[in-house]
Write a structure and sequence with these properties.
By secondary structure, this protein is an alpha/beta fold. Helices cover 57% and strands 9% of the residues. It has a domain of 47 residues.
Length: 550
């Protein structure tokens, strides 16, 4: 990399951290010298956050309804319907006429529109030619975690003969991991079309110890097998899962249907909604809150596909992966950077399609309460390290004259804005309202404003907090059934945990984000931290919105 590019890249790495720390510094200084202006800013900021809370609530409700609706579909039957599009369209038109809700009617109308376009373009490919590769990276996960995940894939209603499971092991995991891989291959090997075990060598030049390096190695080996069978890359969907990713029986059929009915299907990734239900009843209250807030944010983003970026478990075509040379092997946030890599490769013509289906993962549960809290902080800091994509995206867009200028500004701003508020919003809401009174009370000439500022801001934020009621209602709607060995009083804790929202937002959202941005600003790059998976009891995940076969 030329020296000039190194300097510009380094400066861009510093921007998010400088912006965040400047916000805190300016807030303190301005509260002392210009407390009245800060007081008005506080009121405007709180009003802005009130409208943001309303907007988030509307998006949550929309996605929740879509998840309910799509959970009732028989996706295998829909796949079969693609073989006779005229008949299938007539069937959907009849269902539209008797749709019970506006959301259901609009969803069916959108589906019919896509199918008509598909019909005009010559019809859909035969789904019997579609092939799935499931990458399941593992480091030192227990046998129970991996078995639960693979068992959910075996229950799929999509033909298992066209599903390849790739258990991607790490050489550094040692003999114990190899023994677990052998047991799983013996148990599940005959259930799928292929069951491949790969061992990623340690210490390959140019690689870091990251998930991206492991799944790239595994995907290349799987791609060679597919190539040997003369399967077209555009007919292969690759799902990069986590070791604990559990899916519904209709998941691969829904993914297949969505892929086959999407225009320019290879120029898109496909993103389900993660929920952390595998061990939710065992997780500490704070860890449950962090997990559900992450799920809710993904639900919000699913209703805004123009903003949606791949996160954790996601799928994309082998064709796109070959074009971009698979996932990055030297960055921590490979799940989001693969989206930006494709975005740059195709000159801004790449998007993420929301898949209105849930996948279940583990909440952070370690050997002790304190270890679980520390682990949660480290996991959120790793997620917040996604800000490393900011200099990567901006330098990539700057070199490409084919990406429209408005798109460069929009995507760069959205990426920076999201991480900026991640780091600052909770602290500004919690403390900024008091700073003018603590630091500049003697300089506030309008004593009425001074005396009423806490009351005004408190009332505004109380209105915003009322939307927590909606969050609680949605939370219990997606919560799995209480295991029998847990007392009914456990539900009380599930209610009371929401009182910890301020603590959760400050210590497990804002501070990890500040930590990540500060490290990037100082050039102290992070290493990939694998969240340990500790199961304190046998896992029987119950995913919400299960198919009712409509």
């Amino acid at each position: 990399m030329p020296r000039s590019r190194k300097v510009s890249y380094r400066l861009l790495e510093m921007v998010p951290g400088l912006l965040t720390w400047s916000t805190f510094l300016v807030s303190i200084v301005a509260s002392y010298f210009s407390p009245v202006w800060v007081a008005f800013f506080i009121i405007l900021f709180d009003v802005f956050w009130l409208f943001k809370a309303v907007n988030i609530a509307l998006h949550l409700v929309y996605t929740h309804r879509k998840l309910q609706l799509h959970g009732a579909y028989d996706w295998r039957l829909r796949l079969e319907g693609l073989g006779d599009l005229p008949k299938f369209i007539r069937t959907l038109e009849q269902q539209t006429a008797i749709a019970p809700t506006r959301v259901a009617r609009e969803d069916l109308e959108d589906e019919i529109t896509r199918l008509r376009r598909l019909k005009a373009g010559g019809g859909a490919p035969d789904y019997h030619t579609l092939f799935h590769i499931v990458l399941l990276p593992t480091v030192k996960e227990p046998l129970e975690v991996l078995r639960t995940s693979i068992e959910s894939y075996r229950r799929s209603d999509f033909p298992l003969s066209r599903i390849m499971i790739v258990l991607a092991c790490e050489e550094r995991s040692g003999q114990a991991a190899s023994q677990i891989a052998d047991r799983l291959r013996k148990e599940f090997g005959s259930a799928f079309g292929h069951f491949l075990v790969t061992v990623h060598p340690d210490g390959i030049a140019g690689e870091a110890r990251t998930k991206g390096a492991n799944i790239t190695y595994a995907a290349r080996m799987a791609a060679e097998m597919v190539k040997g069978q003369e399967i077209k890359p555009e007919s292969v969907l690759v799902s990069a899962f986590d070791a604990d990713t559990v899916v519904k029986p209709g998941y691969f059929s829904q993914l297949s249907y969505t892929y086959l009915t999407t225009p320019d299907r290879t120029r898109a990734s496909y993103q389900p909604v993660p929920v952390y239900n595998n061990n939710v009843w065992e997780a500490p209250a704070v860890n449950r809150l962090v997990a559900i807030n992450s799920s809710f944010w993904q639900m919000v983003e699913s209703s805004r596909p123009d903003r949606l970026v791949t996160f954790s478990s996601h799928s994309m075509s082998l064709s796109a992966l070959l074009d971009v040379n698979f996932w990055p092997v030297d960055v921590v946030s490979e799940d989001s950077q693969i989206f930006w890599r494709c975005f740059l490769k195709y000159h801004g013509e790449y998007r993420t399609i929301p898949l209105f289906s849930v996948v279940s993962l583990d909440a952070v549960v370690l050997d002790s309460y304190m270890a679980s809290l520390v682990g949660q902080y480290r996991q959120n800091r790793r997620w917040a390290w996604g800000i490393e994509n900011f200099p990567y995206l901006l330098t990539g867009m700057a070199k490409d004259p084919l990406i429209p200028r408005w798109k460069k500004y929009l995507y760069g701003y959205r990426l920076l804005e999201g991480h900026y508020f991640w780091a600052t919003a909770a602290l500004l809401i919690a403390f900024l309202g008091w700073l003018p009174l603590l630091l500049g009370m003697g300089r506030i000439e309008n004593q009425v404003l001074a005396l009423n500022l806490p009351k005004v801001t408190g009332n505004i934020m109380t209105l915003a907090t009322l939307f927590l009621i909606l969050n609680v209602a949605l939370y219990f709607n997606i919560l799995p059934e209480r295991p029998r060995h847990h007392s009914k009083w456990k539900f009380l804790g599930m209610f009371l945990q929401w009182l910890l929202i301020p603590i959760s937002q400050i210590f497990f959202a804002a501070l990890p984000a500040i930590d990540a941005q500060t490290r990037l600003m100082l050039g102290r790059h992070m290493e990939f931290w694998v969240t340990p998976k500790v199961r304190k009891e046998p896992s029987q995940p119950m995913l919400p919105f299960n198919s009712q076969r409509l």
